[in-house]
Amino acid sequence: MNRRQSDHLMMIIISLTILIIILTYFIEINSVVHGQGVITTKDNAQLISLSKGGTIQDIYVAEGDTVKKGELLAKVVNLDLQKEYQRYRTQKGYLDKDVNEISFILDKENES
Fold first, then answer.
1. Where does the signal sequence lie (predicted)?
2. By the number of CB atoms within 10 A of the CB, which of 57, 78, 88, 99 ranks highest?
3. Who's near 38: CB < 8 A, 6+ residues apart?
4. Where would I find the H helices in the chain?
5. Contacts of 57 (CB under 8 A, 6+ apart)
6. What does pTM read for this prediction?
């Protein structure tokens, strides 16, 4: 390999390294943590678990805070469930429209 090719290869390697460093600054890496939570009451410990899973969006209390029965502790978001809910809601809208159309037709037939 001659000097010119060597310099060219070195420039490519340096450019790619700089590009990778710049890209790592802009790329967001999501981390997932699996675990269980325990809430300790004055009387005993309570296990917290989610059957469908999700992402904790907000935490409304801090460790050591006193809370009352029914108080919201955290907000958990499950995007899959939200999408499924929206799909069923849209489907319900179509079915409601069909029911209205059929009811209208039946009412017209009953009037005749």
1. none
2. 78
3. 45, 46, 47, 48
4. 3-26, 79-111
5. 74, 75, 76, 77
6. 0.40
Contact 58, 74 (CB under 8 A): yes
- Answer whether 66's CB lies under 8 Å from 53's CB: no
Tokens of 61: 């209390």
Q: Which two tokens stand for residue 111?
A: 């009037």
CA distance 88 to 92: 6
63 close to 69: Cβ distance less than 8 angstroms: no
DSSP line for 20-50: HHHHHHH----------EEEE-SS-EEEE--
**pLDDT score recorded for residue 46:** 65
pLDDT in tens, 55-112: 788 889 888 888 888 888 888 888 888 888 999 999 999 999 999 999 888 888 877 6
- Measured CA to CA, the distance from residue 3 to residue 46 in angstroms comes to 70
